[in-house]
Design a protein that fits this description.
- The complex is a heterodimer of chains A (101) and B (385).
- Chain A is mainly β and 101 residues long.
- Chain A has no helices and 9 strands.
- The radius of gyration of chain A is 15 Å and the shape is elongated.
- Chain B is an alpha/beta fold.
- Classes of the chains: A mainly beta (101), B alpha/beta (385).
Chain lengths: 101, 385
């Protein structure tokens, strides 16, 4: 399997890549010129950090911010609901007297 | 992409890739007549209604717009409207609008004397339509006469990674060729609204996108719900989706990177070429109905888990990037692009295979949904997600 791509990233700005097969700690993967070692298991279809992402820094996939790191994320770490917060809070839609106040 | 294809040219200059005879009820009360015609004439496209009367103004307008949009769809060669007689959405008024552009008729059960008489008149219409359509031949048409819509359903983790991006490449190619591409399912745009607004043609379109999402957001709020409540779903999260924005971005990949020309209500045709957003529901058959009503001749449908759904009017090409999906439902998948995930194939190569399948389907090859007779139809409603 070593000749096959194990992760896929979409845009030069991305700081995460999606696992095309289950990744184990110690696996080497490569995307966008980043060569990293996976720190802990990443399930199929989940994301791995291509580089260190500081707390509050944007998590970027498809070249867009999909959320914000709520903890420091090390290179090679599993990136998911435990260390990412959504940017969507409905604030842009909340009218006066409506929800979200 | 080839510069041309062979299609059925209509008197209004539009081009169909199918030459359907359609019999549709304009109200639930006429459904049994239409159903009987469907049993007796399986090649005639029969569409029954879940609405057509007792609706409030906005839904009444939508029923009318969607029925007219479907009647006008260039895949429809002839259309007969069947009504009861006292309903809100009058068959005769729809026929009067279509008259002159293609063979059409309106039948009222109350006026013609009941079920059996309505059937007799339907059959007479079908005989006349067959005779008229027998003269219509496929002729070379420019690719710019094609309008496609993109849709996803039964998605899994491969949809956002493989099939949606590949369909996005095809959508961009259609737009470059001077055709139309439609992206529906507005409730799936929450979280990616900034990206869509950035891609919009100008401030007016940006404001229209914002206003439509605001309306859907407020409707949920009036029911005490938040759009991001339980979304992404537990199943999405187990599959690796972390946030609503990630989910929305994966979904709108089907529209590629082209500029967004405008946003349309269900039943409204795009007034120009290029990529357009459709404000229509997410339930698959209702979404497909909105796309057919907006004039799409063909639908590119990505799936991961697989789904049999089809449209009475448009061939629906199922595209799957999941080996599990293809293995589970091989008789429902038209384009297998599993090698993007499994063997390092490029998104572009997936797009090439989708275009190849489109060429065959445009030329008349049946999709699995057509072969199986999946003619699902649900009337879009104003107040649903």
């Amino acid at each position: 399997m070593s000749t096959l791509r194990k992760v896929l990233a979409f845009d030069a700005l991305d700081n995460v890549a999606s696992a095309l097969e289950p990744l184990n700690a110690g696996d080497s993967v490569e995307a966008l010129g980043f060569k990293i070692v996976v720190r802990a298991a990443v399930p199929l279809g989940h994301k791995v950090a291509l580089r260190r992402i500081a707390q509050d820094e944007a998590v970027i996939k498809y070249g867009e911010a999909i959320g914000r790191a709520c903890l420091l994320v090390e290179e090679g770490e599993h990136v998911h609901v435990h260390n990412v917060k959504s940017l969507f809070d409905g604030a842009g839609y909340a009218s006066a007297g409506e929800i979200g106040a | 992409m080839n510069a041309s294809f062979f299609g059925f040219r209509r008197s209004d200059g539009e081009v169909g890739i199918r030459n359907h005879i359609v019999v549709m009820s304009t109200v639930t009360c006429a459904n049994r007549v239409v159903q009987r015609i469907g049993y007796d004439h399986p090649d005639v496209i029969c569409i029954e209604q879940s609405a057509g009367c007792m609706s409030l103004d906005d839904d009444r307008a939508m029923v009318r717009d969607v029925l007219l949009g479907i009647a006008r769809n260039p895949n429809v060669g002839a259309v007969c409207f069947v009504g009861l007689g006292c309903e809100q959405t009058q068959a005769k008024s729809l026929r009067d609008i279509i008259e002159g552009s293609k063979p059409t008729d309106a039948i009222s059960i109350q006026d013609c004397g009941g079920h059996d008489e309505a059937l007799t008149r339907c059959r007479a219409f079908i005989t006349r339509a067959r005779a008229e359509l027998a003269h219509v031949r496929r002729e070379p048409c420019p690719l710019s006469a094609l309008s496609i819509a993109t849709k996803c359903g039964g998605s899994d983790w491969t949809s956002a990674i493989a099939s949606n991006p590949a369909v996005g490449v095809v959508s961009d190619r259609m737009v470059e060729a001077g055709g139309i591409s439609l992206l529906g399912e507005s409730s799936g745009w929450f979280g990616a609204e900034q990206v869509l607004m950035r891609r919009a043609r100008g401030d007016t379109v940006r404001e229209q996108i914002r206003a439509i999402l605001q309306r859907r957001y407020d409707e949920a709020a009036h029911r005490g719900k938040r759009i991001d409540e339980g979304n992404p779903s537990p199943g999405n999260i187990a599959g690796g989706l972390t946030t609503l924005t990630e989910k929305a971005l994966g979904s709108i990949r089907k529209s590629g990177h082209s500029r967004i020309e405008g946003i349309l209500a269900a039943g409204v045709r795009p007034p120009g070429k290029g990529l357009w957003l459709l404000d229509n529901p997410s339930l698959d058959p209702a979404s497909l109905a909105g796309m057919a009503a907006a004039g799409a001749q063909l639908i590119l449908f990505t799936t991961g888990r697989g789904t049999p759904v089809g449209s009475p009017i448009c061939p629906v090409i199922k595209i799957c990037g999941s080996q599990e999906g293809v293995q589970r439902l091989p008789g429902h998948i038209d384009v297998d692009i599993t090698d993007i995930v499994a063997a390092g194939a490029t998104i572009e190569s997936g797009a090439d295979r989708i275009v190849q399948a489109m060429r065959a389907v445009v030329a008349g090859e049946l999709t699995h949904a057509e072969r199986l007779g999946y003619r699902d139809f649900v009337m879009p409603q104003v107040a649903v997600l």
